[in-house]
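User: Can you fold this complex?
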Amino acid sequence: MASISQIFSSYPPVAVQEAEAEGAPREDHSQSSLISIIQHYSLSHGLAMYPPNFTGSSSTHAPTTVYPSPFPASSFHKALEVQKRFNQLYVKVASDEEWLSNILEDLSKYDKSFTGKLWESYQLSKKIGIKQKLSLGIFRSDYMIHQKSKDEFVIKQIEFNTISVSFGGLSTLVADLHRYLYSSGVYNNHSKSIDTNNNNNIEYSLDSLPESKSAFEIAKGLASGHNAYLKSSLSSSNSNSESSTAILMIVQPNERNIFDQTKVTNYLFSKYNIKSYRLTLSDIESKTNISKTGHLYHNESGDEISVVYYRSAYAPSDFTSEKDWKARVSLETTWAIKCPTLLMQLAGAKKVQQLLTDKEILSKFTINDKTETLNDILDTFVKIYPLDDSPLGLEARKIAFSNPENFVLKPQREGGGNNIYKQNIPTFLNSIPEDEWAGYILMELITPPNFQNTIVREGQSITDDVVSELGVFGSILYDDKGNVVDGVNYESGWLLRSKFKSSDEGGVAAGFGCVDSVYLV
Ligand code: ADP
Ligand code: MG
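Assistant: Here's the predicted assembly.
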């Protein structure tokens, strides 16, 4: 049996390597029929995306790897196991308004235009009255693996996302694609020695290529929110039946990643008979109405809304005007269950992530848990520094200039493309007033092992060194005291994304990365 590092160094299966040895160009034509099979499978199963500047009928296959990427099995299982603890941790954080308010008051000063507006919207919602006591979290915790020693790998957290987590739908599809390519013999035909020639140490089996259940699990999480709404005596009495109640997804206009979302909502309907509607924040005023009792209705169908599920509202660009901020507040104050609430969105701030790496602070939120919980969570953290005037912050201000190569600087933003990497950090810090530095966190860079794989994007394939990032989804239903409701606290499947090693960020739609699946080693 080959060691994990041998597998990384001999990846991917032989066809690609042979072609390269013969001096084939990076655009590898020996694989063209394999690429066609991938495209056909993808388009026929909805493993698709709209290209930039699309029109309604111009979808393309989603960018994927040709081969599943090797991932240490022990790290994979560890990441899945710790998810429920993270779900619970963030629920406790979001339920501790006093603790959060100190941090958010402060953060709002540095990031008035977004964190400040979210915090203000929360205050306003509270003033109007937040009726619904139940909330739903659909989260994703992202990790890279860190090589501790030759064959010892551990997971390290990149970030914890509390709003609009994506790729739960496509992840299920890409794992199915890779399992299909293996089990139907396509890999064997195109990569001659996957099973037989042990030179490359690749021994796929259906056990080592696990299914990704994320699309179904996220739908299940949404269904539990929906059912809890129906069950509660608080849903409106005049239409308290399943057929006239639906989930409302708040989406971005011209969403390119729509098929990721429809994979979940199609399943939500076929399995749970739950309808869903898609509206943008700007649509809310004209396409919904709120009854005097605070129940939310979808105008066109007349359906009552059980859950407001945000797949938007995580970036400043999602709020095009004051009207959109107003919409966010009016939704927050309806009876519909929010996924997530404003407080939970704010609990996902990068500043909060940094503070939770402090053992004392983390202990505060895990106090009633077993010590394992604290340690299992702590084990996943790398060093994250504040850049304020605390002793640790002052240390970090020095490190940012003396040793930027090992760090990434992050503002309070989500959605990719916002971070500052390595040698760009000093220049960036010098370009902004020093009293704004406290709005950023300085995070140690994780350097996962790289290996070769082929990425197919809009019909083009490129083989190069890649690195992978594992995301683990989680669902949790909780009340205003931070208690789990109906036992809904699940790990909800996983996602692997891979990107060329040469790119700092891994945005799939942005063109940096692609969806992938794991080959457990
Ligand atoms: P965003 O909220 O904008 O998605 P992230 O914190 O997830 O920001 O960072 C975006 C990407 O940058 C990640 O997906 C990862 O590829 C890379 N990245 C972020 N933090 C680190 C880190 N500590 N080490 C290595 N890569 C990182
Ligand atoms: Mg991210």
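The radius of gyration is 23 Å. Residues 16-21, 24-29 have pLDDT under 50 and may be disordered.
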